[in-house]
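Anyone have C-alpha cells for Gnk2-homologous domain-containing protein? Sequence:
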Amino acid sequence: MFILNKNLAVWFSSIMIIFIYLMNLITTTLAQPEFNSWDCVEAANYTVNSTYQRNLDTTLDALPTTNRGLGFYKLSIGQGNDTVNSVALCRGDINPDVCDRCLNDSIVKLRQLCPNEKEAVGYYDYCMVKYSNQVILRRMDIRFYVYLADTQNATDIDQFNSDLGQLMRNLRGDAAAGGEQQKFASGNTTGPNFSTIYGLVQCTPDLSEKQCSDCLEDIISRIGSWFNGKVGGRILLPMCNFRYDTY
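Reply: yep, here.
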C-alpha cells in the first residue's frame, strides 16, 4: 500500500486547491465572453443607491422574462428622469437556451463595463442588449456604426460586391416584411468561382416595415465602400444589423 507522507499530502492538497480555483476562474471567464463591441454613453451618469440605479437593477433583472418566444425583449420601469428603458435582441436563428445565456451574459458584462452610465449597449455574436434613460423603441437616430471586416479579399471584387449586394437587398425585403415578433432573414447565393456567400439581416421588430427597410438599406449601402470585396463583414446598430461571410 502506498501512503503519502505529511508534507507530500499538504503539497498535493495545495495543488488541488489551486487547480480547482483556476478551473472555476476559467469557467467564469468562458461564461462571460468578450463583447464584439460595446459602448458606455457618457452623457449622463447615475449615483450609487439612486432611484435610477434601483430602477436599472429591477429592469435588467426582469428583462429576460419578457421574451415572447422569438428572441426580442423589451421593458421600461420608472417615471420621469428615473425611467429606465431596455431592449435586447437575439439572432433570429439561434435556439432559446443560447439566446437566454447570451442575454444574461450581456447584462452582467455590460454592468461591469459601464458601472455608472445611464445608457449602454453591447453586442455579442448572438445577441444585443441596450438600456437608456431615453426612449429606445422606434428610434432611428444613429450615434455611431460598429463594423467588423474580414482581412481576406475576394478573387473578383467587383463580381463579389455585385452578388453580395443582390443577396443582401433580397434579404432586406424579407426581414422588413416580418411581423411584430421577428424581423429576420438569412440566405445564400453563388459568388465568383462558384463560391457561396451567406448572409443574414435583422431589425428589432418594434420597427415598422419601412423603418426596418430604411435602416437595412442604410447599412447595406455601405458594403461597397467599407468592405469592398472583403469575404466577411458585419455592421451592427441597436435597431438593425447584417452579417455576411463565405462560410
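The radius of gyration is 22 Å.
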